[in-house]
């Protein structure tokens, strides 16, 4: 099927702007539009000579393509919606040296295009003495050439860039030391460019302090409890939990992580991080554990004074924050066969009415399984019905509560939306019905908000 981008013969489901589509570049052949949401992968040829034989370096705003001709070094921007074309200077920097790319603002052509680039730097008289260095390459539409900005450093800053983003005429480039450099993008030559290094002196106010800054926030009251900076590798945990509300005087925060190696018999170290209200820093505990217990990606549950952790097979490990000890229970026996790796499915542990509930949710349309711990016999009992309860699960947490209406019973609500209106907006929560063992409206074709979580507000205490 051949068609121009603005041709009326283009199938309606493949009209540019109707929904997200994939563009496949096939060397000297014409690019092909593909609908990834169609089970048959419907496709159409995009007859734009400007794209034929060119290489796409980047896509901005889902509309503008940054194109490159390897033979002539020609570089330009083209809009797939308006078919507008913006010429850029020839790009002489080798493509293998280019990494991330960003625009200083979305107002093309009044903007700057900037790459993070890398090259080998030779030092001293020894030809073998070499190291990689990052620098910036940029241009403006209408300019005559691409300019470079070196990342000069006196050794007190990390010279390695890894992320770049543009906002309101300034390019922000992050470093591996969790500082960032700000580059004025309203420039026309390398002599106009300068790098201003900015540290984050008050991360509690900026809400950004790198990977090691953590705080607890109440989204309804705006209250924030700041936690100390995490020590080295302290952010690598499988789950984290609070013993009580973070603003209470006796609150304990606990995170747990177990080493992951291909040979499970060699994975014998548990790392625990503990913080108590009033502590100036985290307490780190390294505990030897020679069992085959493998922690799931699941938040621990503070239960009867200890933190209970769910294993990938359904067994339980317990950390006691008072004497800083760890033990793996002989019972309950695992409910899953084999030795699944963390991440193979969603695993949740929750407490409801003094019962421990384990939930195992696959990444496909397979059934969701629930188990209740029989504390007298220490065995998992499979739950087939929730006649008076409803469950909410997301990718990190799970909540069980009394069903507010009879229609909600036996349902497990997912962090996804379905049932679309005429504007193609999803407005109904998708759920799994325990009785019918089915997903509604369906497992596929749903919308999921990024990093969405279920929360249970307590307005009586607000």
UniProtKB/TrEMBL annotation:
Ranges for domain KIB1-4 beta-propeller come to 47-187, 212-421
Enumerate the transmembrane spans. Answer: none
Protein name as catalogued: KIB1-4 beta-propeller domain-containing protein
Organism from which the protein derives: Urochloa decumbens
């Amino acid at each position: 099927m051949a068609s121009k981008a603005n041709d009326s013969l283009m199938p309606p489901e493949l009209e540019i702007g109707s929904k997200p589509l994939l563009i496949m570049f096939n060397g000297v052949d014409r690019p092909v539009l593909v609908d990834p949401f169609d089970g048959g992968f419907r496709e159409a040829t995009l007859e734009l000579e400007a794209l034929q034989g060119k290489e796409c370096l980047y896509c901005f705003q889902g509309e503008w393509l940054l194109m490159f001709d390897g033979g002539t070094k020609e570089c330009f921007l083209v809009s797939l919606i308006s078919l507008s074309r913006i010429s850029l200077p020839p790009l002489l920097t080798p493509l293998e040296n280019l990494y991330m790319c960003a625009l200083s603002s979305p107002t093309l052509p009044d903007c700057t295009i900037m790459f993070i680039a890398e090259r080998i730097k030779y030092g001293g008289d020894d030809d073998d003495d070499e190291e990689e260095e990052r620098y910036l390459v940029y241009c403006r539409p209408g300019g005559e050439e691409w300019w470079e900005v070196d990342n000069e450093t006196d050794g007190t800053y990390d010279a390695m860039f890894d992320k770049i983003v543009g906002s309101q005429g300034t390019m922000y480039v992050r470093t591996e030391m969790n500082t960032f450099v700000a580059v004025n993008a309203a420039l026309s030559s390398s002599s106009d460019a300068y790098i201003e290094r900015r540290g984050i002196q008050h991360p509690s106010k900026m809400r950004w302090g790198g990977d090691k800054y953590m705080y607890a926030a109440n989204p309804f009251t705006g209250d924030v409890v700041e936690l100390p900076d995490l020590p080295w590798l302290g952010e690598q945990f499988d789950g984290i939990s609070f013993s009580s509300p973070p603003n209470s005087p006796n609150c304990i925060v606990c995170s747990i992580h177990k080493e992951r190696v291909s040979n499970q018999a060699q994975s014998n170290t548990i790392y625990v991080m503990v913080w108590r209200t009033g502590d100036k820093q985290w307490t780190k505990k390294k505990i030897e554990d020679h069992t085959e217990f493998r922690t799931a990606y699941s938040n621990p549950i503070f239960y009867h004074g200890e933190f209970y952790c769910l294993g990938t097979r359904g067994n339980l490990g317990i950390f006691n924050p008072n004497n800083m000890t760890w033990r793996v229970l002989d019972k309950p026996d695992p409910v899953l066969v084999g030795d699944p790796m963390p991440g193979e499915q969603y695993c949740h542990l929750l407490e409801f009415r003094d019962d421990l509930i384990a939930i195992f949710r696959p990444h496909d349309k397979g059934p969701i399984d629930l188990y209740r711990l029989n504390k007298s016999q220490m065995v998992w009992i499979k739950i087939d019905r929730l006649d008076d309860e409803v469950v909410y699960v997301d990718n990190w947490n799970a909540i069980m509560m009394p069903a507010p209406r009879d229609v909600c019973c036996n349902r497990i609500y997912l962090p996804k939306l379905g049932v679309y209106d005429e504007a193609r907006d999803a407005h109904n929560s998708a759920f799994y019905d325990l009785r019918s063992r089915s997903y509604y409206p369906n497992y596929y074709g749903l919308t999921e908000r990024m990093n969405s979580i279920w929360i249970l507000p307590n307005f009586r205490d607000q």
